[in-house]
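Lecture notes, structural biology module. Today: joint structure prediction for complexes of three components.
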Amino acid sequence: MNITELLLSTVRMATPILLVALAELYSERAGLVNIGLDGIMSFGALTGFMVCFLTGSPYLGILAGACGGILVNMIYAYCTISLCAEQIVYGMAVNIFAPAVASFIYRIYFGVSSTLAQGSLMKTIAVPGLKNLPFLGKLLFDQTPMVYFAYLMVAVTAVFFNRTKAGLNYKAVGEYPKAAETLGINVIRQKYLACIICGALAGIGGAYLTTCYVNTYSDGVVAGRGFIALSAVIFGRWSSGGVLLACLLFGFCDALQLRLQIMSTATPYQMFQMIPYVCTLVALAVFGIKKAGPKANGKPYMREER
Amino acid sequence: MIVDEVCDTAPILQGKRGTLMEEILCMEHITKQFGSVFANRDINLEVRRGEVHTLLGENGAGKSTLMNVLFGLYQPTAGKIYLNGKPVKITSPAEAVKLGIGMVHQHFMLVEAMTVLENIILGDRRTSGIFIDKDSRRKEITELADRYGLEIELDKPVTEIAVGAQQRVEIMKALYRGAELLVLDEPTAALTDIEVEGLFSIIEKLKSENKSVIFISHKMREVLRISDRITVLRAGETVCTVERSETDGPKLANLMMGRDLVPSHYEKIEQPGAPVMALTDVSYHKASKHSGLNDVSLTVSRGEIVGIAGVDGNGQSQLAQIVTGVLTPDEGEVDLKGSKIAQFTPNGFILENVSHIPEDRNKMGLIGNMSVQDNIVLKATEQPKFSDGKGFHLKRRAIHDYALAMQEKYDIRCESVEQESRNLSGGNQQKIILARELEGNPDLLVAVHPTRGLDIGATRFVHDSMIDARNRGCGVLLISADFDEVLEISDRIIVMFEGQVMGVYSGKNPPVEEISLAMAGK
Amino acid sequence: MKRRKNLMSVLVPLASVLLAFVIGAIIIAALGGSPVQAVAYLFKGAFGTPNNIASTLVKATPLIFTGLCACFAYRCGVFNLGGEGQFIMGSIATCWVATTWGMEGPGAMLLCLLFGALAGGIWGAIPGFLKITRGLNEMIVSIMLNYIATLFMGLLYTSVLRDGNVPQTAAVPDATQLQRIVPNLRVTWGIVIALAVAAVVQYFLFSTSKGFQLRAVGLNMTAARFNGFDVNKIILFSFVISGAIAGLGGSVELLGTQYRLISGYAVGYGFDGVAMALIAQLNPVATVIVAYFFAVLRTGANTMQAGTGVPTSVIDIIQALVIVLAVAGFALVKLPQIRQWLVSRTGKSKKEEK
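The predicted structure, tokenised, for the full assembly:
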């Protein structure tokens, strides 16, 4: 087993999970638990693929994925923020609704056939100079731009939450909205903004799957990554650095299980496919603490009557 | 307005605003109505620059409402507010802050996950730029802190600092935003003695810098120590405003809670039966002054009502939850009907025939989405009366009939016993709980704030029911912040203050002044 | 008061269905089809011939089980999203007993059903146990277990229990299968079992003391605790039983309809169950009706596609729309402002004396 190959794979496979995990981070930091990530990803995957197929540009596909994700998440936003529906329940509804719409659109356009339509695949772009670094060079600096984007987002997120005023105010909304309100922060507006960011990033994560990872769309393309991303946020203790590590771990499991499948033909491949999910469970069981995370997470915010 | 001859009212300044006397705040004829209830009625308050002005009053007197009006959380039904002589309309807390009013709430508005520095600068729009310039902010705040003698550690997370330090952060928040008038709501409730001293030095410093402080408290010792002037509120109205130099503890206690002793409707028992519950040196979170118990010993006997008097937040909730099995004490012994309790579970106490009227009927007492009849039989569904085979088949008819009987007996006003209990008024909800808790002929009844939010009729009913239970041999532990209620029905009165028993008094001809003082900590 | 609440419980889903159909009709029209014709074929496919009705019942059976599973758990306030995994584990256990134990006949069938329920119950106990001991989020745990169960099943039919060269398990022997109720129609006793379970769940929740306590915990955990209920025990119980229901469903599906484990087995039944329970407002009887409705849509969809060319995915959309609209609708009518508006329209006062 070539370690470099394995690590290369790890980075590639961690990326979509990372994007979606960051999306959920932004959402939960504003107090909104969004379990509809799988659904948003599916829709992002579809819109990304379609636009990429139609225009030939994977980059436009990514953009379309972002827009698609925002669109779907706005439904969630309206229902949970303004209608105060239960976030969990609505997240489930999105998980059922969004993939159905995605599947529908795909079938309408491409019809039902066993061969999948092929779009363009995003090419890797090596960072000049840095790519010649030993070991790390190939690993980190010779990937598709989306990978760079994802890692950049990790840094941006860290800086945003830790060093900017807007980030500080943002966090207050998820921790103690009432206090934030008394300090003049517009809680409702902040929550909607959070949903836009979440939708965009999750949509991009989905689009990555159909324009960079593979160049086809199929119904099961998301494969539960949304929920793995959810665990990554818990596992990473709601910090972007922690989330990065968690995603790399899950990406590693993903990459490992693929390698192991190829390597050992004796063991049924499903055993290996289980690894990421078992890993998530174990990680949760060992590290998942009860009441961690933004304090007002999951609670609907109602402006009290004055 | 209630007038007492003991009170020598300093005339409230009328028609001269902000000019002659260095007056910073004037609240005139403030009235706040909620439906038909007057939380504040025609209140006048006037605060001078550089003064510590105390708002004194018992629970429900209207202090919090008045301050919420000042801070923009409520809009007054009538009345005007003047700041520095100019009329102002305070529409939101942000507006109040802009006008120079700072509020330190009883429950701190601090984000636990953030550091002290972050909490202070949160939401501040006065600086420019995207990034937080931690160094400049740090410098600014440290200067301010030194000026007012506030010791704060800027980089510690809020959860790691003591309560006294947290309070200093809240004060700092207000000063950082340029507050000229600070409102401190029950600031010493959660502080240790040393921390209280620290707070007082800060208040002195604020005075010397010409800031004004509105101090809300029920603790006499502190009020007498720190105030320049004191305004007493009772039942939503101003009683009077006095200079500190012209009054003392007993006078204030009388103004605050003074009432002519109205002879109680009820016969008081002086020779109760055998003890049904005894606490010996029970402690829970000993160090906490407002949510703990410190070596509490008391007895409740059959056929008597023991009333625990005291302002909310002196350990009463914890006491109630220990004697009903919800909490387990850290130290000490609890005996029920002669035998020591080994394990504290609610079910264990229920099986021993202990009934509980909880302090929050909606959160702890009733299942709001279930019907009235379901709530009445909530604990009893496995009894042969209501089901076959120990819960295997609920006898709907029997339950319904029983509920109808209870509705009649306890005068529960509702459209039907199958209605969801959350749709009933507070009084009727309480009657559901009474029906459930009293019918089983309990040995011990623990009633916490049983008439909170109820009108006179419902209150009378609850009291009658409790007296009946007592007369049937039940021991009753009443915990209430309503002093009138405690005086009305208790056979013995125990005063609790900061988790400790201050004294035990007879319920027949109770020494009201002495009790009032004990409630205030003396 | 109660009348209005019941009215809302029925009106909101009905309105959602109507609205969803309207949107579906628009989509069909946009695709160049005729909505009226499509609906006609839909109904024909579901109700046209006795065989069609039988097919609908067959399709409804597994949905009833997973719907009841979600319903039972959510009644206790817990989000058991693992219905899919519990269903599959039930099927796996059944397959194991039916094909490897060397037994056949009605006795084996009963054993299969038992083991199916057991397997589902155990699989459901895992998230429950982790929740009450470590406070873990039961949603993530149960969904991870879904994937593990599905992969495990794949492992079985491609290797361990593989029957010949095709990736599927051996079929359940004829004698062990659930028999047809009427000779020429597809419907088996499975639907009867499903309805029986629904009746038992309904009875348990509303006519027994334990069910009463379970509902109390789901509605107000604090008050339940103060009134002496053993909340942790009740929560674990709800996980186990809801898992067992799903497991039993898996068993019935294998013994009555599918007979062997194969790729694509039971995909989506779990989440559909959750959706149905939500639309049915956690009422067991209503869950059966909603499950039947969904089955009607699915059975009819194939006929519709064959007859008019309108793709079955439109039905998926309509189904999804019903869910989204129903949940939003319920939230809408609960809002304080809307409530006040409704009260002022119906003229009844909410609170009695104040």
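Point to remember: The first helix of chain A runs from residue 3 to 29.
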